[in-house]
Specification:
The structure is a single chain. The protein is an alpha/beta fold. The chain is built from ten helices and 16 strands. The strands form four sheets. Strands 1-7-6-5-2-4-3 form a seven-stranded parallel sheet, sandwiched between helices. Strands 13-12-15-16 form a four-stranded antiparallel sheet. Strands 10-11-14 form a three-stranded antiparallel sheet. A hairpin with a 4-residue loop joins strand 12 and strand 13. It is globular and about 60 Å long. The chain starts with a helix and ends with a strand.
């Protein structure tokens, strides 16, 4: 392995971890809006203006989903009229129609299918709408796999019947059940579907799992109020949002957000504007950086989650054409740490969990690691992750 190559690649991917999403959405790749898409300063002014001139958004939600709108309202007072919005886009504002649908309140109320009919009815009379986004309240927490499949199937049907409208998928909010809870499993089902089928996902759950410094609270049984377990005793005795707010006066704005803290709604608003800008054409991919086309046809390698992590992390890869290959983990010096997969790779989606140990079962040190899927001739894909003890 070329050590210089790995050093350069590490710097690039580490930058991507800090800077935000790595690849633009052009309908042939997924667009994932998560905690990495919350740096408002990165969004070019021209794409904020373009979103305001081109997007016509219908947003259905109840109380938890209101965090986006509450945060966006507070943002106008915090940063100015550049971020103004209203129904119809009057006076040059973003056209965002808040809770315009009749017959359903959110994705699970009054049931798990009424929202789809309400969407169709609304689009019949509002042909200018080109973005539709619905949120959950608490219904993902008690959803079955079949319930989520119903949601995904209905969304797919809408996409087929309304090709001029961009439909935004969403995960369910935190509920304190942790990584072993049903909520996490069902959110992962939604995420997998969106990654593998090139959908647009506003990852509501992921956004509220991180503070602005990138500290992950997902393994500390966090809930929607931003409470978390500080010492691993099973009790939610801390609140990451209040702690960050107290430590960073002037860097956040107050807003009356339902079920949560102002900072969480701030970040939901930042992510919302990131989404609007991306849908308006902003490509946040550095010039000249592209996936290898031969690798994309043979297989695709997903970003690990959670990332950063401090216990275990999951890597998903999809094989389109069976081949002999390997998924190998390297440190930033280009030294092999662990062979995660090796041999014949069958067609389909595969999941690998890495627990922070090397080939000999010894724990590794904190830092940036690269994982590379290789095979199918010279094809390869490499991504980065951050391990934090």
């Amino acid at each position: 392995m070329n050590n210089r190559f790995f050093r350069v690649l590490t710097i690039f991917f580490f930058t991507m971890l800090i800077a935000g999403n790595s690849f633009s959405w052009d309908s042939s790749a997924p667009l994932i809006i998560d905690h990495t898409a919350t740096d408002l300063a990165q969004i070019p002014r021209e794409y904020i203006d373009k979103a305001k001139s081109e997007l016509h958004i219908a947003y259905g939600h109840t109380s938890h989903g209101s965090q986006l709108v509450t945060g966006m309202t507070g943002l106008v007072g915090f940063k100015g009229q550049l971020y103004a919005f209203n129904a119809g886009g009057k006076t040059g504002a973003l056209d965002l129609r808040d809770t315009p649908f009749s017959g359903a309140e959110d994705l699970g109320n009054p049931d798990r299918t009424s929202w789809e009919k309400a969407t169709r009815n609304y689009l019949k009379d509002h042909t200018d709408i080109n973005v539709v986004i619905w949120s959950w309240c608490g219904q993902v927490s008690w959803a079955s796999e079949s319930d989520i499949t119903t949601y995904l199937t209905l969304m797919s049907g809408l996409e087929k019947d309304y090709p001029g409208v961009r439909f935004v998928y969403m995960t369910g909010h935190l509920d304190g059940s942790g990584l072993n809870g049903d909520l996490h499993k069902r959110n992962e089902q939604i995420r997998r579907y969106c990654r593998e089928n090139n959908k647009i996902l506003y990852d509501f759950n992921d956004i509220e799992s991180y503070d602005p410094d990138g500290t992950w609270f997902g393994d500390k049984i966090p809930n929607d109020n931003c409470d978390y377990d500080t010492d691993g005793n099973g009790s939610q005795d801390g609140n990451w949002a209040i702690e960050w707010q107290n430590a960073h006066p002037g860097e956040w704005y107050s807003c009356d957000a339902a079920h949560t803290q102002p900072l969480n709604a701030n970040r939901k608003a930042y992510a919302a504007w990131w989404l609007w800008a991306r849908l308006a054409g902003w490509q946040d991919t550095p010039a000249g950086v592209r996936e290898r086309s031969d690798a994309v046809h043979a297989f695709s390698l997903g970003q690990n989650f959670p990332n950063p992590f401090n216990a275990s992390t999951t890597i998903i890869y999809t094989v389109n054409e069976p081949f002999d290959g390997e998924l190998v983990l390297y440190n930033c010096a280009g030294q092999k740490v662990k062979a995660l997969v090796s041999g014949a790779l069958s067609r389909g989606m595969h999941t690998v969990i890495w627990d922070g140990s090397d080939d000999h079962g010894r724990p590794v040190t904190s830092g940036v690691y690269l994982y590379r899927l290789m095979g199918h001739g010279a094809a390869e894909e490499t991504k980065a992750m951050m391990y934090v003890k």
